[in-house]
Amino acid sequence: MVNVKIQHDCKDELNGVELRATPARIALMHLLETTDRPVDVQTMISFLEKKGIQADPATVFRIVNMFTEKGLTKQIQLQEGKSRYELAAQNDHHHLVCTKCGDIQDISDCNIEVLEKEISLKKKFRVTSHSLEFFGICNDCQKKTS
Amino acid sequence: MVNVKIQHDCKDELNGVELRATPARIALMHLLETTDRPVDVQTMISFLEKKGIQADPATVFRIVNMFTEKGLTKQIQLQEGKSRYELAAQNDHHHLVCTKCGDIQDISDCNIEVLEKEISLKKKFRVTSHSLEFFGICNDCQKKTS
DNA sequence: GTTTTACTTGCGAGTTTATTGCACTTATGG
DNA sequence: CCATAAGTGCAATAAACTCGCAAGTAAAAC
Fold this sequence. Notes:
Two copies of one chain form a homodimer. By secondary structure, chain A is α+β, with helices and mostly antiparallel strands.
C-alpha cells in the first residue's frame, strides 16, 4: 500500500518545466509555496538543513536560477545586496520592507499599470516589468520604541 | 592673481557636511552633479583615473558611504547586484532601466504619494521611502531589432 | 608659514553573494 | 534494472563590499 500523500510533492510542477524532481527542488518548491514572503538563498539552505537535506550553496543558486529561467519563480532584490525569490504564479504585488526588523509584507492591487501606459507613450519605452518597494517602519516596530 | 574658478569646486558642499575637500571627493561630487543617471563605483573609479586621480576601490566605497550618510547622495539598487549613487538633492523621481543596453533614464512626477498614504493607513506601516523602477526596452533598442 | 591634529587614504586581508568546470551521483524513461 | 541525461558536490574564481592599521594630507591653530 502506497502512502497517501499528505501534501502534493511538486513533482508535477517540476516535470512540467522539464526539471527533475530531486529532494532539494521538491523541498524548495514547498518552501516557496508555503512562505508569504520572498526567500533568500541562505534561508533556503537553513530550511533544507532542518529537513535533513544538506545542499551546497552552489546547488541552491543553480536551483533558483533554473526555477527563474523556467518561469517558476521571480528573482527580486530589496536593496539588501542579495537576491530573493518568490513564486512567479503569485499575482502582481509589491513589498513593504521594514528597515528596522527586516520584515517583508506583500501589498497588491496598486494601479501602476496606469503609469506604465503613460510611460510607454510618453517615453517610447516598452515596459516589460516593474519593481516597487516601500521602505519604512512596520506596525510592530512602531510600537516597540514609541 | 588667483585663478578665476571656471566651475565651483564643491568645497562648500563638502565642508558644509563636515567632510574635507579631497581631490577624489571633489571630482566625484562634480561627476554626480553633471551626470543625469545614478553612477556605480566602477564608473567612478574610471572617471577618477581619467582625471589623473587614482583611487583605491575601498576609498571610493568609503566616499560614497560618507556622502550617503551625510545626506549628499542617495544609494539605489536597480536589480543589478550592485549599488548606484545619485545626488540626494534631485527631486523625487524614478528610473527606466533598459534590460537590453542597460541605459537608465529618469522619470519624475508620478503620484506614488497617494499610494503611500493609503498604505500608511491600511497597513499601519510608516513609509519613509520607496523605490520604483520600470524595466523594459528603450526607444533605441526597439529600433535596432524591429 | 609652520606645526598640529584629526580626518583620509592605500594596502592587505577578509566577507558575502554568486558563478563555473569537472567528476561523481541520481532521477527518469525504456 | 539499466542507460543516460540531468543534477549535485567540491574547489576554484569573481565581483562587490568592509575593516584595521599605518602613512599621508586638509584644515585649523599658532
